[in-house]
Design a protein that fits this description.
The structure holds two protein chains of two kinds. Chain A is built from eleven helices and no strands. By secondary structure, chain A is mainly alpha-helical. In chain A, helix 4 crosses helix 5 and helix 10 packs antiparallel against helix 11. Chain B has two domains: 148 residues, Rossmann fold (3-Layer(aba) Sandwich); 75 residues, no CATH class. In chain B, the strands form two sheets. Chain B has a six-stranded mixed beta sheet, with helices on both faces. Chain B has a four-stranded antiparallel beta sheet with strand order 2-1-4-5, covered by helices on one side. In chain B, helix 3 crosses helix 4. The radius of gyration of chain B is 18 Å and the shape is globular. The mean pLDDT of chain B is 92. The chains are: A mainly alpha, B alpha/beta. Chains A and B meet through helix 8 and helix 9 of A and strand 6 and helix 2 of B.
Amino acid sequence: MASFLSTVPELMDAGLRGVRLPRGRALALRLGAIAAFLALWSLLSGAVVMFKLFNPIFLPGPWLVLGNVLDMAVRGQLWVHLAATLERVALGFGTGAALGVGLGLAAGHLKPVRYVVEPLVEMLRPIPPLAMLPMFIVWVGIGETSKIGFITYATFFPIFLTTVTGVRQIDPLLLRAAQSLGARGVGLFTRVILPAALPDILTGLRLGVALAFFVIVISEFIGAEHGLGYLINDGRNFFLVPQMLGAAVVLGLLGYTGNALVRLLERRLNRWQHPA
Amino acid sequence: MPPKIQIQRVGKSFGAAERATPALGEIDLDVAEREFVCLLGPSGCGKSTLLNIVAGFLAPTTGTVLVDGRPVQGPAPDRGVVFQEYALFPWLTVSGNVEFGPLLQSRPAAERRSTVERYLNLVGLSAHADKFPVQLSGGMKQRVAIARALANNPSVILMDEPFGALDAQTREVLQDELSRIQRVEHKTILFVTHSIREAVYLADRVVVMTSAPGRLKQVFPVKLPEVRDRFAPEFTQYEADITRVVREEVAKVRE
């Protein structure tokens, strides 16, 4: 199935990464994979019922899970939990991102700040954030503050580290050029250091969003009355498997959307790297 | 009128006190207002070091540099710099780069627009105002860098082998353009190069430096018309005279 290439950029692209698939076929393969996964899942859960392999309550089919999500949505229950989780993620991630980018910019550019902040970060960073969750609860209780604070704590590290890396990789010549044009102090940070480090910062934000959804679930297992994590834990207590899987599916969709939003932001803000 | 740039007994050594290697001997040099001075010398003679000291990127070990009578303490917008590697801000468009200085000075938007327009026009890039640096050739990038430096209206312009990374043809085109721009703008320019031809083509004065540690070896005032002909006998005579002096220094490095 040889295909002819008609432009030099196409040829170069093909040389590096192989011939690109036609758009339609690529989409068909992607959707096909998802459809095959759902079909296999349906088949398996159907087989369990048909051949009485084990109690079918353990493995509800995808349609049952979807039905449960829709049911929760119609009855309004889903939105309450979704809003609770989103609010915690937004506040926690927002604070973590502001702290991580702010301190990261300062530590990346100013050596005294770096020498103070970096050893502390390097000391705390190897501790898995989840190991600190009980301490957060002991210190600030099981309310909202500990959940939001915990997300802030967990998301701070990747955002801080990528920001520092981004700032330290700035071509010193750019900083000299900026200073010769009159940039200093805050102006140097907002007009040169921040935009120059932005590609790395956005990578950090993407890691941070993923981590935020990762840790919120677990902190909602403990002492929460709302939230998707609570729904999963509640489902476990009352053996509502479709509810557990349904909440997980919603979390997956949220994580996917969060990642897609940051990617969209990346594409807009990094347009100068590959202008049309 | 006092000189624009006064370089007074400026020396520079690198490394710790006892094992310090001198890079620059003691240099005294004045550049007058509207004068175009080329620093010429064998590689490693410290001509770029001297330029970096005037720009304020390096502190001299001895001596001081005065610009408009004020001692240089770090980089500042009174000294515009054009680098060999262009150093454009890649996230800004061509006009964004040129607008950078006026924007920092909080100039009103209308004034900024006319400044950008004027200097892009001067370097012949008006048609590329909305492009990003990655979309430009080396010669175009250096034109943007020159426009960016001019738009900030500095007191003096320092150029560190600005055409060193360009191919021979583009290099001559840009020399022509810089010469034309200087006839319009009349800036005070300190220009580092290792090309004798380039120096004779552009400079009012060519300063030849010795091999490391660099000192002033000889100063050649170039008494040629403003618009120069690279093939005129007077031009080639200057080239030959300066080449002889530079060769002596290059030979010393080899020994």
